[in-house]
Structures are given as C-alpha cells and as structure tokens.
Amino acid sequence: MATATATGSFYSDALDIVYDVCACVLALLFGAALMKLLRDYTRRKGYIEIQQDDRGMYSNVLMGTSDSYENVRVAKADDAVI
Length: 82
What we know:
Keywords: Membrane, Transmembrane, Transmembrane helix. This protein has 82 residues and is an all-alpha fold. The chain has 2 helices and no strands.
C-alpha cells in the first residue's frame, strides 16, 4: 500500500513539474507575441527603432567634453581649502 502511494506521489510531482514548465513556456510565448505586436504597432504609427551602441556613444560623448573625468584638475593639498 505504501509503494502505491509513493508511486502516485512521484507521478504527481513529475506532472506538477511538467505543468510548471508548460506554464513558463506559454508565458514566454505570450510575452514574445506581445512584443512583436507592439513593434508592429509602433512601425505602423511611423516610429522607427534606432539601433545604436550605447557604450560607444556615451564614451565618445564623454571623451569629447572638457569636463571628462580625465580632464578634471585634481586639487593638491596646498590648494585645498580646509
């Protein structure tokens, strides 16, 4: 009797895992479909996606300014006001 309960419990646990995996896959597919719908909607409205490398863009902007961290003058002890 105990083995039948243990076997039933094993199949129940395995079935719960399968249900959880299916629910996660379904949620991911639903999210992907929503993202595709949003992208299509924004394209129809006339918005365009601008693909850019943010890291490269920000580093070029920082290096081109006079207040970049490399161009900041460091105060010496005798210049510092205490």
